Structure formats: C-alpha cells, structure tokens
C-alpha cells in the first residue's frame, strides 16, 4: 500500500491475484433457498463461508426432494457449493459459546430465519454488534416492516405479494407463478449486493451494519416495469399490450399480458416445426422496429414494408395478433434452431424456448462454467449452476456442497483455536452432536 492508501496494481498474472472476496469470512446461518443462494454467491466470489447447521438435522433441504437414498438432495447440493459445514446446537449453552466466538471473528452473518428466531436464540443485532462492531448482519425476511413483518414466507408467497403473479399469465386466466425463483434466489442476489456494499462502506467507517432484503421488495424490484405500466395506465391504454389491438378495455391495474414483451418492442412466443409433439418447439420473436424491413422479407410479406397498415410501429400496434399469426406461419416451417440461424443473420432479436434438458446438455454453458459437473462422495456426479457473474481476475472454481458437519472439527481447531481437550468437552456437552449420538457417547 502506498502512503495515500492506494494499493499498486498487482503484478500477478490475471486470475492469479486471489479471489474477489478473499479474506471475508461469512457466518452462514441460512437455510432453504433464499439465504443459501446469497452465501453460495459469496463463496463463489472467494469468501470463506461457514454454514452453521443443527446437529443431526442440518438444513431441511438436505432431505427434501431426495432422489438418491441416503444422499443430500440436489436441492441442497446445488445451493451450498463452496461452503464448509459446522454443526452447532444454538440452544445449547456451549453451542452458543462457540457461536459467539464465531461472531467475533467473522465479517458477515447471514440469516433467513422466520422473524424473531435469531432474537430468540439470543443473537440480537445489539448483542452481535457488541461482540463484533465490524460485523455486517444480513437478513432475508418475507416482508419489510409493516403489517406482514411477522409472517413466514416461501417463494410463491413472495411472487404473489410482490406483484409478479398478478402480472403473469394470460388475460382472463388466473394469476400465475413463474419458474424463475425470483422470490428466493432473486432476494438472495439482492442481499449479496447489500453485503458487498456494506463491506465496502466498512472500509471507510470501520463499522458493520444491518442489511435487510425483504422478498416482497425484491420481487417488486424485479417487477419494476409493471409498476411503470400501472402509472402509465392512468394516462391511457397500454398500446403495446395485445389486448389493446384486440379492443379489450383495460381495468384499474396492470393486467396479465401473456407473452407480450414488457418493453417498447412487441414480441410473442411462436410455434416452430415440431410443436405438435415437442412442448418446447417455440421461439420468442421480437418485431424490433429497426429490422422491420428484414422481417417482412424473411416471412415473405415484402409489401408490408410500405403498406400504411404495417410500415410504422404505431400502425402495427392495433394488429399485432394478425402480424404474429403471419410470422408464425413462417416459424412453423422451421425448427427453433433453424429459425434462430436465419433471423440472426438479419439481426432480428429472437430466442429459442430451451428446455432444461437442452440447457443441461448445452456445450457453451459448460465451457463458460455456468453449468458445472461436480463429484459428491455420497451421490456421485451432479450438475450445478456455477457463478453466473464472471470476474476476469477472480475465476470461480465450483466445489461440491459439504456433508453435514464435515468441517466441524477443522473449524473448531483451525478457525477458533480450540484445543483437543476443549473439543472433547464440547463433544460431551451435546453442542455439536445430535441427541441420539449424545446418549450413545
Ligand atoms: N440449533 C438450534 N436451533 C436451530 C438451529 C441450530 N443450529 N438452527 C435453527 N434453529 C431453530 C431456530 O432457532 C427456530 O427455533 P424457534 O422457532 O424455536 O425459535 C427453528 O429452528 C426454526 O426456524 P425457522 O422458523 O426459520 O424455520 P421454519 O422451518 O419454521 O420456517 C421459513 C422456514 C423459510 C418459512 C422461515 O425461516 C422464513 O420465513 N424465513 C424468512 C423468509 C425466507 O427466507 N423465506 C425463504 C424460504 S425458501 O428460501
């Protein structure tokens, strides 16, 4: 470091100057999906993530949706890579002593318990801050302060409460939840950004702070364009919605828009060759204005380039359904990949509807480390999603998830400095072992 506090550029080759979050130690008190998504990302970025789990039980997802008897589920393994696992009973006196020692040496505590659970354990913000004023205490909760703050929340509840469900689905149909886990994984992502920002601020202030990401807020943030439309609605109909062209009046709230594009360039999902038997033989097609002439040529309607009903975006808006029906006549003569090849030659924005099978097999996703195969001692090889965020000087090596309590002794000795004798005492206290084992000991 120079006299003005600026670190001179590393001379190490790119990718060999350590990891982005090297030196950051995370006390990971998370479970299920939202919190683990966040801490797995921090681990991918190089943080030392110590996952605290209840002895004998662990994160409930270890046993949920199990596909291999006796092995941790994919639900767990795909959300807890690159972490270490320690078992501690927080309701055991000795267990709390260990936890407090961890609090003193960690930089970040992440949790997503039901409201009040951490306080009931005794780990209130005040206590944590007193033990370690530099600690960043980050929480996922279902709702922020307000009428629902005490509620337990799962993914789909957040999708419904955050505005996603009311704006997803087809007009006239019921609200729908989406496959993307915007409530859980989306909020985990938001929390991770809050944590790294707080770490950055701590460099200046020297103190930690609380970080809260409420699932309702995270979903609403991802539904920002729908709140945009809500306000536009007060000034007139949403002309880019298909229902406008169909002459269906708008109500008081942003409606469900089927597969309409959420932006200013109309789009829709269209059938491709094979749709009768393949549920994913579809393509998303955007009639982007700058390439309208090319679209007309490709689909064999060159006169639409100058016809007053089709030549300009405003003229097309009332007849989007008819236009997409015509484009579909063309896409149905091609497979989704043939259509992609042709359309991309003309810079026409489009995207194939890819199944999970196709994504799992996609070579380029393997090559970039977005889909990674890892080996696990109990379940064998499995696929996981690697770090979707690529840092040019902090490459990510994806490691398997830990077995329950796999690193308990390692953390007690190497991180917390407990002696062999102390560990023997801890073991008999029941702080790190499940009740059955305690009786047997
Ligand atoms: N040792 C001892 N006790 C432990 C422990 C440990 N290591 N780890 C957890 N516990 C205890 C907690 O102290 C709590 O006990 P009390 O209720 O007696 O105080 C108990 O385990 C259960 O915690 P919980 O209430 O968080 O768990 P739940 O299964 O009842 O609820 C969930 C799950 C997800 C609905 C709730 O945690 C929640 O609403 N979290 C916030 C929102 C959220 O993240 N939702 C996303 C869920 S999917 O990602």
> Major β-sheet, in short?
6 strands, parallel
List unreliable stretches of 5+ residues.
none
Bound molecules: oxidized coenzyme A
Work out the helicity level: 25-40%
The shape, in one word, is elongated
What's the helix and strand layout?
Blueprint: E1 25-29, H1 34-44, E2 48-53, H2 74-77, E3 83-87, H3 93-105, E4 108-111, H4 117-121, H5 125-131, E5 136-141, H6 155-161, H7 185-205, E6 210-214, H8 215-222, H9 224-233, H10 242-245, E7 267-271, E8 282-286, H11 292-299, H12 313-316, H13 320-331, H14 336-345, E9 350-352, H15 356-361, H16 363-367, E10 371-376, E11 380-385, H17 408-415, H18 420-429, H19 435-440
Parallel strand pairs: 1-2, 1-4, 2-3, 4-5, 5-6
Antiparallel strand pairs: 7-8, 8-9, 10-11
The chain binds oxidized coenzyme A.
The site of oxidized coenzyme A has 25 residues, from α1, β2, α4 and β5.
What keywords describe this structure?
441 residues; alpha/beta; 3-stranded antiparallel β-sheet; 13% strand; binds oxidized coenzyme A
Tell me what you see in this structure.
It is a single chain. The radius of gyration is 26 Å and the shape is elongated. It is built from 19 helices and 11 strands. The strands form 3 sheets. Strands 3-2-1-4-5-6 form a 6-stranded parallel beta sheet, sandwiched between helices. A 3-stranded antiparallel beta sheet has the order 7-8-9, with helices on one face. Strands 10-11 form a two-stranded antiparallel sheet. It has helices spanning 34-44, 74-77, 93-105, 117-121, 125-131, 155-161, 185-205, 215-222, 224-233, 242-245, 292-299, 313-316, 320-331, 336-345, 356-361, 363-367, 408-415, 420-429, 435-440; strands at residues 25-29, 48-53, 83-87, 108-111, 136-141, 210-214, 267-271, 282-286, 350-352, 371-376, 380-385. By secondary structure, it is of the alpha/beta class. The model has no long low-confidence stretch (mean pLDDT 96). Bound molecules: oxidized coenzyme A (CAO). Oxidized coenzyme A (CAO) is lined by residues 32-35, 52-54, 88-91, 112-114, 117, 120-121, 140-142, 152-155, 184.
């Amino acid at each position: 470091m120079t006299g003005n506090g600026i670190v001179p550029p590393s001379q190490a080759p790119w990718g060999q100057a350590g990891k982005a979050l090297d030196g950051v130690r995370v006390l990971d008190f998370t479970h299920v999906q939202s919190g683990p998504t966040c801490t797995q990302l921090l681990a991918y970025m190089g943080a030392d993530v110590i996952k605290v789990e209840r002895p004998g039980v662990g994160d409930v997802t270890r046993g949920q949706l199990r596909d291999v008897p006796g092995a941790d589920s994919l639900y767990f393994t795909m959300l807890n890579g690159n972490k270490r696992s320690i078992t501690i009973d927080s309701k055991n006196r000795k267990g709390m002593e260990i936890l407090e020692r961890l609090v003193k040496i960690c930089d970040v505590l992440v949790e997503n318990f039901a409201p009040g659970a951490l306080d009931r354990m005794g780990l209130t913000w005040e206590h944590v801050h007193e033990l370690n004023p530099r600690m960043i205490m980050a929480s996922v909760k279902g709702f922020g302060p307000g009428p629902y703050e005490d509620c337990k929340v799962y993914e789909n509840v957040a999708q419904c409460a955050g505005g996603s469900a009311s704006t997803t689905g087809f007009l006239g149909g019921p609200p729908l939840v989406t496959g993307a886990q915007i409530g859980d994984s989306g909020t985990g992502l938001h929390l991770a950004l809050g944590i790294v920002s707080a770490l950055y601020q701590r460099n200046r202030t020297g103190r930690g702070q609380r970080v809260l990401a409420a699932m309702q807020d995270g979903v609403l943030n991802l539904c920002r364009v729908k709140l945009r439309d809500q306000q536009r609605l007060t000034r007139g109909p949403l002309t880019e919605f298909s229902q406008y062209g169909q002459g269906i009046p708008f109500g008081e709230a942003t409606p469900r828009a089927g597969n309409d594009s959420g932006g200013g360039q109309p789009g829709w999902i269209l059938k491709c060759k094979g749709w009768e038997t393949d549920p994913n033989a579809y393509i998303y097609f955007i009639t982007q204005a700058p390439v309208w002439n090319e679209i007309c040529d490709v689909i064999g309607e060159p006169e639409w380039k100058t016809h007053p009903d089709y030549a300009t975006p405003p003229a097309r808006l009332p007849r989007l359904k008819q236009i997409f029906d015509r484009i579909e006549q063309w896409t149905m003569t091609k497979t989704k990949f043939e259509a992609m090849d042709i359309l991309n030659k003309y810079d026409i924005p489009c995207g194939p509807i890819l199944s999970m099978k196709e994504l799992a097999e996609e070579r380029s996703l393997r090559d970039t480390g977005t889909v990674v195969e890892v080996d696990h001692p109990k379940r064998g090889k499995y696929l996981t999603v690697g770090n979707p965020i690529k840092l040019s000087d902090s490459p990510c090596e994806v490691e398997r998830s830990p077995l329950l309590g796999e690193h308990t002794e390692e953390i007690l000795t190497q991180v917390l400095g407990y002696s062999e004798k102390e560990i023997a005492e801890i073991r008999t206290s029941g702080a790190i072992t499940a009740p059955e084992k305690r009786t047997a000991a």
